[in-house]
């Protein structure tokens, strides 16, 4: 699992550079052919094309011939939202095990072969999906398609590999959650926000579930969800569409198909009162996180429905509060001699397979209390509800989104990630452009209306980190897990 994004970035997840959440990759070895004058010259962007392979798997291809590199991403529409109690974290554990062998490859050989081709690869698990990617010289694309299709079709490994890798995952949880007070607070807050939704479980899993997990749990999850019609291959870069389609049919289309298990709805009950989480841990500073139930946009055939207008207006509100240096929260809470916070942020979730939230957070300044930060955060939203927003302020955030749509084209990784994210959420390939158009149409009156509608006490789950003094005998832990990769 990749390092998570800062929570405040979620407000513009599909719009700006959240698609660059994958770390920057080092320069790659060049393919044997050099760009011709035709491919080197600036050209208009070529639209992505989508196909369905003979076994029901989706293929999406986006040519971009500005550099001799290509990205392949495998997206599987399965994440922690598909787990059941007692096996939390199994989606992420399986992601690790996908690097541990197949009928054709020994444990670790997949990564060695990608490196030998001059490429880089990794994977990530989220609530809604799991992804695997390679960035390689364009001339090596067929080879990584062959490798990826093999492990998707026939991932297998001995039990000893699982026993070693589960220790790596447990150490990952210790490093990124158990040793991080704010991460622990967020975990407790999510468990309080969501009742019926599987979002109440952490992606990495509860430690007790990791301790009890067996190789059979991971194998069963693989057999259940790693199904051709539940997955998509996305290829972006210096590629020929017809050639990629032929390779995809050859390597992926021959994988036997199975039915995707039925997913039953798990609707979240209405919240009927404020919820509060108090968490104490050794920490340097207190921290406040406020979460409010928020609407999400519809997907599939209903994408872009008029009923989604509140969701788009909340995204604009988050950008007005925290979308640029010197935005409202920055000016009101962190600047001046009487500042109440060292930092403050806002984010709006509006796309996902589960319920979404609008979040506000802040770190109290010296001498200030978490209660003061909570009051200041809510006061800024109330101010928008009372006074509205100006035309120039609204135009500024909209201009930034349009710019981000242009900048993302500089990265084939960003393009591939955006296309895969759209597919996995049931959105059309051009969803980002259509979302930008929807956001540009949001009016000041709509922003003011949602600021008044979604931020009452009965819609809020507040979490506060109360810092304790450092533990005097605590020693920093080294990484003691057996050989393996933190992903």
TrEMBL record:
KW Protein transport (keyword) present: no
Domain of life: Bacteria
Pfam family, one: Peptidase_M16
Signal sequence residues: 1-29
Domain called Peptidase M16 C-terminal: residue spans: 213-400
Protein keywords: Signal
Cofactor(s) essential for the protein: Zn(2+)
Residue ranges of every copy of the Peptidase M16 N-terminal domain listed in the record: 65-203
SUPFAM superfamilies in UniProt: LuxS/MPP-like metallohydrolase
Residue span of region Disordered: 467-487
Record flagged with keyword Signal: yes
Family recorded in the similarity comment: Belongs to the peptidase M16 family.
Name under which the protein is recorded: Pitrilysin family protein
Organism of provenance: Variovorax ginsengisoli
